[in-house]
Amino acid sequence: MSDKWDEIQKDISELDDGIFDDSQVLELSRIIDNELNKKAKKASRKTIIYLIAIVVILYFIISPIVKLGYPNPKKFEKEMIGEYWSKMDMILEAEFNLSKPYFRYRDSQVKDLGFGNYEINLMTHDKTAGAMRNPDVCAVDISRGGNGYCDTADSLAINAFQYHNHDVIVNTENINRTLDIVNGLPDSAAIFSETAFIDLQKLYDVFKMFEDNEDDLMYVNVYGKHCNNILGITMERMQGYVIEDEKTNLKYPNLSQGLNNGDYLNRVDEYTQHFKSTVNYLYNNKLYSVDDLNLRNMRKYVNKKDFEVESKGVISKMSKKEFLDFYENNKELISDIHIEDINLY
């Protein structure tokens, strides 16, 4: 616009002085300037209207349509299961119980970013850090149903468990090194460790190993055919939650761990059903639309009529004496031990 005006001004200045006097030139310039300003304002108004229309269409028409094709965490957050738990709480509780044995789920907040994108702020507690530590908070970004990861809760890999699709090698060197470390600890030490078995162990036999110290058992890994990731049963009594929704309880028996009061040896069937219900609940109420092959394969496995829990390893929290006694009593069954953390008191 300014270039065009400069050209007009130049043309005017080149006009013969005998045709227009100075006042006429100024008046002509003002008229032309006003006309150009009117056109510029009109064009600007149209541009603004077009932009507003585009924004409205994108966020109020296209974005809701896009979201229909993917899981909606915001909807899960608003849907209540009983009086105290939202569906979002239930999904994340199930996920943590199955695959994040070192962390407790505390709370979450969902932010809708539009177009099927969400940010979930997770509040978790590291079980190895002690009860007095403040909860950890991490942001999980879910883009149109894609898997999201919490850097805090997903950062610890379970190192000792070996997949039982090949011959298991007893890691004698690592076991001896671990025992040397434990023997050098003070008696008051609390040891978080992963123990892998040479052969798959029945759930009853795992419970039998901890018969005298049930509180030591934190997590039982569950073997599933073609399942290479870690899934299992969280055993902590403090992990319990109660579902006061009859429909959910009927469809997913023993999903709630609110009655987790020990006596494991007499409750093998309950914990088997609990694991089965947790896998089915998480699969049927997906937070992510991407196909989790590991969860899908485990679901097929647990829904077989002859399914029973077999374990390739456990996670435990033991004192120095309990750790050494446990190894001595079960060393013929153990292929490897990995210490995840040690708390000194």
Shape: elongated
Residue stretches low in confidence (pLDDT < 50, at least 5 long) are: 153-158
**Tally of extended strands?**
10
Listing every helix as H and every strand as E from the N terminus to the C terminus, the arrangement reads: HHHEEHEEEHEHEEHHHEHE
Q: In percent, how helical is the residue content?
A: 40-55%
Which percent band covers the strand fraction?
15-25%
Order of strands in the sheet with most strands? 8-7-9-6-10
- Could you tell me the mean pLDDT? 78
- Class derived from helix and strand content: alpha+beta
Report on this model:
This protein has 345 residues and is α+β, with helices and mostly antiparallel strands. It folds into 3 domains: 2-67; 73-143, no CATH class; 172-343, no CATH class. The chain contains 10 helices and 10 strands. The chain has helices at 2-13, 22-67, 73-78, 87-99, 172-183, 203-209, 246-251, 268-284, 293-302, 320-330, and strands spanning 80-81, 85-86, 103-114, 117-126, 136-143, 190-202, 217-221, 232-234, 310-319, 334-343. The strands form 3 sheets. It has a 5-stranded antiparallel β-sheet with strand order 8-7-9-6-10. Strands 3-4-5 form a 3-stranded antiparallel β-sheet. β3 (103-114) and β4 (117-126) form a beta hairpin. α1 (2-13) runs antiparallel to α2 (22-67), α4 crosses α8 (268-284) and α8 (268-284) packs across α9 (293-302). The longest helix is centred in the first third of the chain and has 46 residues, at 22-67. The termini are far apart.
